Structures are given as structure tokens and as C-alpha cells.
Amino acid sequence: MPTHLKRAHPLSRLLNYGRNYRHKIRQATIYSILNKLFDLAPPVLIGAAVDVVVKPQESVIARFGIYDVFSQLLILTALSVLIWGLESIFEYAYEYIWRNLAQNIQHDLRLDAYSHIQDLELAYFEERSTGSLLSILNDDINQLERFLDVGANEILQVLTTVVVIGTAFFVLTPTIAWMTLLPIPVILWGSVAFQNFLAPRYADVREKVSDLNSRLSNNLNGMMTIKSFTTEAYEIERLRIESEAYRQSNRKAIKLSAAFIPLIRLVILASFCAILLFGGMEVAKGELAVGTYSVLVFLTQRLLWPLTRLGQTLDLYQRAMASTNRVMDLLDTPIAIYSGDISLPSSELRGEIILNQVSFAYQEGYPILENLSLKIPAQQKIAIVGSTGSGKSTLIKLLLRLYEISTGSITLDGIDIRKIFLHDLRRSIGLVSQDVFLFHGTVKENIAYGNPDATMEEIIKAAKLAEAHLFIEQLPQRYDTIVGERGQKLSGGQRQRISIARAILKNPPILIFDEATSSVDNETEAAIARSLEQITKHRTTIVIAHRLSTIRHADCIYVMEYGQIVERGTHEALIELGGIYANLWRVQTGEGQTFMFSNVN
């Protein structure tokens, strides 16, 4: 969010988000208030009981024509049962609704935040750590849940207590009521002052815990690197620094929040002593009934002591508001890539791709592609080769609209891909990347990831086409074997073949292989090459390859350098041309002098 724009208050942002729950919020609020009203009734009953015992003929109940002490006490007993019963009922009601409301908002907020994250462009993730995003999705949203679970009810009940008891005091003893109510403005002012003072400190706490989560996430994902470089002690020290920063940030906030309650207690003590002393003197003078005095003493305690919990509630509130800002800032992050509105089902797609004068840069002033034009006929197999940074993999990301082109256009079957439903566009393309990502789960689940309704027969067929069935059958639980996080229990070649099987089972009209055979041995590569002959039939196929032997039979081969197509033609034509491709072919076949030519993008 731009720094020059003032954000709305986090509570306002939270209430605006939860507007669909207004009915439940009103219901829970009413139950909280009713519970507190019945909770404040027992002191009144105690005062009435004192009057019955001391002056039975002048008690409140005697005004209704009931003068027998036992009968009066029996009525008070019945009222006590009724009031305590209603208090318990409304306590159950507000607990049930507030807690479920907290769970529902937490659930929806997490899903909405995650859904919004999925709609953001790849550039957003490249600028942020996974741990930071996990901190928002888990810790910050849980912090909100804790506040809604407890804090909202606490605030409502404190406000109800102040209003009800304050009114009662002015009705019963207007001359000394101010003594009890005088500390309330001081307490409220102090609470607001503490809130404003603590807000930036809790915002810092949320940032520190985000940094800590980022460190933990990075280290857990890079455990193999840590072990292989024997940097365990170094990483422990870096984690200690992050954890210490979080601890110190929390310590500063705790130091201030912990001082709130003791200070409030001193203010409350002064008020309680005043009502105890001056109210007692009024009774001694005969200007105040004993029962009324009893009610005042009990109500003073009921009014002021709960305010000591205000510090804990505000502490919870401040933590929640800091978290709210982080979650809402995430939800307010603008989406750069919007879906089009033209439906293009895979069954109707021919697969002709045309790039017309396409330019793109990750950073302004550093173009990766410049005025690139390229036509890929439907159901043909084309290949792209080129050196590092030439823009090969970038081209694939633009086809999938993982990034938006700067200028020019890309069309699919004559339709600008920006006008096609993103789901339809990406559903029509099967990507097998060099960087294979497998989810923690079974081999079967990973192959069926793009087509979860696939039968076991279809999964096995796809695995056989990808030359994966044989090694899968040798795994401990075959297709039910857990592959581990990111597929770490499998070799690079095995992961690659499962990735190919996953793309096959998706059955898209367009297939893209981005260095798909870079992690397999020569024997597996040959097997995959044979299966590709079957896989790519009647599909538009784009192959980015390092090993030229896998693409020599492509319908057309494009050579990219510095974001431009510098050579194009069949394998034989490019060899005859004697340019970059021919030179690379001679190096790979041992026919020319060896030199370094890296084309991993």
C-alpha cells in the first residue's frame, strides 16, 4: 500500500470485512449484554436480603404487601435461581456464538487471504519470503481469532457494567456517586494512551515474528544444503539473532503492558475506599439504608475491579489490530493479472500460438524480450534453444500469463490470451518444468494432481507413457508410496518422470517441456524420447532443450539470443546454416572443439 495513503483503522477494516456476519455479531452482542445485566443483579438481591433481615417492614418486597420474613426470603431465593439460571443461559449463548463467529471469520479470512495470494503474479512471490506469508496466514489470523474469541465480549461487558452501574449510582446516591465514577475517565484515558503507545510496538512484534518464520521456513527447505556445507552452527547463530530480536521486541511491549494493571489498581483502590468511607458515614447519619449501602459496596467492586482486566483485553486488542493490518494489507494487494471473459474449452482448442512484437522486462530498463515475433502452428512440435538469459523460460511464463507482457500481443487460436479465462488458458497447457515440484503425498496423488478424478487405470497408463511405471512398481508401497516434501524421497530423474506423467494425465492440447530431460540419465532420456513421440501426437508441443538429440526431429527449431530469434529451421537446415545451432551440435556430438555453452534459464 502506498505510504502516502492513510489506512483506515484496523478495527474498521475488520468490521467491514465481517459485514456478512453482522446478524451474528448483533446476536452475540445482545447475549453478552444480557449476561452482564444478570451478572450485576446478585448485589441488588444481597442488598434486598439485608433490608429484609434488618427492616422487614420497610423492605422493597414489603411494598408489594408481603411482610412475612420467610416469604420475602423465599421470593428472593426464587429470584436468585431465576437470575443465575438466565445468567448461565446467556453465558452459554454468547460463548457459543462468539467462539463460532471467531472460528468462521478465521476460516473465511484464511481462505480469502490464500485465494488472493494465488491470484497474485509471480513477481509478488519473488519479492517476499514464504515464511513471511505463512506468518500472515497462520499466526496473524490466529491472533485475530483469539481476540474475537475473548476480547470482544470483554469490551462489551465492561461498557455494559460502566453504563448500568453508573446509572444505578446516580439514582441511589447522587451525592457520592461521583466518587465511584471519577476514576473511570482516568482509566479510559489511560487505556487509550496505552493503546496508542503500544500500537507501534506490537506492529514491530508482528514484523519480528514474520522475520523469524521466514528464517525457519528457509532453513527447513534448505536442510540438505545446510548439512552438506556443515553450516549447522552458523544457522543456529542466525536463528538465535532472529529469535532474540523477536524476544526483545516482545519484552518492550510486555514491559509497558504489564504496568497497566498495577496503576489502574491504585486508582480503583482510591475510589473503593472513598465509597466505603463516605457511604458508611451516610448510613451512620441515617441518610442511607443499610441495604443500599451494601449494594453500593458490592457494585463498586463489580464496577471497578473488572477494569483491571482492561489492560489484558487491550493487550490482546493491540496484538489483533497489528495482525489485522498485515492481513488486510495482503487482501488489499492489487492483482496485476486479471482473467479474461472468453471461454475456450480444451476440446475446442486447435493450439495455434502467435507472438506479435512481444516485449517484456522483469525490471524496467532491462528488457528480456524485445519485439519478438513467433508463430507456432497448431499440433506441431517446435523446439527452442539458447544461452542463459536469452528469454526461453520467460517466453513460457508469458504464454501461461504468469507475467504480463509489456507490449505486443500473444494469441491462441486467434484470440488474445488476455481475453481468455485464465482457468481455460492454463488448463489447456501442460507444463513439465526443469524445477519439478511434487507435493507431500503419494505417487498416485501427484500423478493425478491435474486430474483428481482419474481412474487408477488412467494413472498407470500415464506413468507407462512417461517411463515411470517400472520404477514406481519397485517402490515400497508402489503407487501409494509417500514421496516426501517436494518429492525428496525420489531421485531427480524419478521426480521428472512423475512430472511428465502428471502432464500427460492432464491431457492438454498444448504441451510445454522446459528442460524436461535435464535430470535424467541417458537411458531414461532415450526412453522418454520414445514416449514423447506418442505423447506429442495431435498436440502443439514446445520443447526447451539443452540436449539437442531430443529435439532433432522437431518440425521447427528456434535459436534465441538476447530476447530475439536469431535462427530458425529444421535440424538439417540449421546444421547446413553453420551458425550457433550447428556449432552447439558439433560440441555435443564431439565433432568440434569443446567450449562452454550453458543454456539453463
UniProtKB/TrEMBL annotation:
Chain ranges of the ABC transporter domain: 353-587
InterPro entries: AAA+_ATPase, ABC1_TM_dom, ABC1_TM_sf, ABC_transporter-like_ATP-bd, ABC_transporter-like_CS, P-loop_NTPase, Type_1_exporter
Bilayer-spanning residue ranges: 28-50, 70-90, 155-172, 178-198, 256-278
Pfam families listed in its UniProt record: ABC_membrane, ABC_tran
GO molecular function annotations of the record: ABC-type oligopeptide transporter activity; ATP binding; ATP hydrolysis activity
GO cellular component, as recorded: plasma membrane
Entry keywords, A to Z: ATP-binding, Membrane, Nucleotide-binding, Transmembrane, Transmembrane helix, Transport
Localization per Swiss-Prot or TrEMBL: Cell membrane
Domain of life, source organism: Bacteria
Domain ABC transmembrane type-1: 28-319
Topology versus the membrane: Multi-pass membrane protein
PANTHER family documented for this protein: ATP-BINDING CASSETTE SUB-FAMILY B MEMBER 10, MITOCHONDRIAL, ATP-DEPENDENT PERMEASE MDL1, MITOCHONDRIAL
Protein's UniProt name: ABC transporter
Organism expressing this protein natively: Aphanothece hegewaldii CCALA 016
